[in-house]
Amino acid sequence: MKYQVSSFNTKTTLAASLKKLMRQKPLSKITVNDIVSDCGLNRNTFYYHFEDIYALLKWMLELETVEVLRQVDLLIDYEEAILYMMHYIEENNDILNNIYHSLGYGDLRRFFAADCRSIMRSIIDRAEAMQHLSVSPRLKGFLCDFFTEATAGTLLEWVVHYQSADDPKRLVEYVSLIFRSAITNILADAQAAGLTEP
């Protein structure tokens, strides 16, 4: 347990340095030496915990957003979860735009989508269970991919255009309307249509 705490603290220290440096210069200009010099660690320590800067970046994003969201009952509190994401994007817009301009839209979308997928799967599974339904795993997989892409795309649009975008609460209302009506209705219609085969 003591090692796990120490390892987590080391990773957090490295992430804080990366975040600090990303407020000063483009991600593509940041080196491992810059990070370890900033936080007083050595290169071996960095590579013990992370394969490269992008692995550290992914860990940092997961720590700050997805792990918090996983603790929310998304089927009931997904509005709060999405609003949290909107506020996170506002507070860290400079860093997220740094990632966007350094890695491009596709790579930043993959950062969001990889973890949005597990969240969407949780929402779909919970909706299915609460309605006492049993639908095709293939359909659930399709819905998960579809809503993951839509959610990740919406979040990325917020990153790139947040200053001119809708108010976060309005955007949350729109997404909530889709989740509340679309997912439950699609699952019910699939069950009624007999789409229970793999």
In percent terms, what proportion of residues is strand?
Answer: under 5%
Can you give the helix content as a percent range? over 70%
| Counted beta strands | 0
Round the Cα radius of gyration to an integer and report it.
19 Å
Q: What is the makeup of the main sheet?
A: none
Poorly predicted sequence stretches spanning 5 or more consecutive residues: none
Question: How does the SSE layout of this entry go?
Answer:
Layout: H1 2-22, H2 32-39, H3 43-49, H4 53-70, H5 74-91, H6 93-103, H7 105-130, H8 137-161, H9 168-192
Helix pairs in contact: 1-2, 1-4, 4-5, 4-7, 5-9, 6-7, 7-8, 8-9
What labels would you give this structure?
198 residues, mainly alpha, 9 helices, 80% helix, 0% strand, elongated
In words, what does this structure look like?
- With 198 residues, the chain is an all-alpha fold.
- It is built from nine helices and no strands.
- The chain has helices at residues 2-22, 32-39, 43-49, 53-70, 74-91, 93-103, 105-130, 137-161, 168-192.
Can I get a quick summary?
With 198 residues, the protein is mostly helical. Helices cover 80% and strands 0% of the residues. The model has no long low-confidence stretch (mean pLDDT 82).
